[in-house]
Amino acid sequence: MRVEVVMKFIVERFARDESGAVTVDWVVLTAAIALIGAGIVAIMSDETTQLGADTGAALAKIEMPTLDPL
What we know:
Shape: rod-shaped
Number of helices: 2
């Protein structure tokens, strides 16, 4: 009989304890932010790669004057 009372007390105390709920909330929030960031990177990577290629091509077309040696 004593074991049942102790176990009932432990289970009730565990059910009332909410200290881990905040940790779970932060983990879910952090995971959501990380996934949103990864999605933005995936979407933007093609455009930025093309922009870099266009910029490189435009810079390659520019003729730079050379300085005469002294």
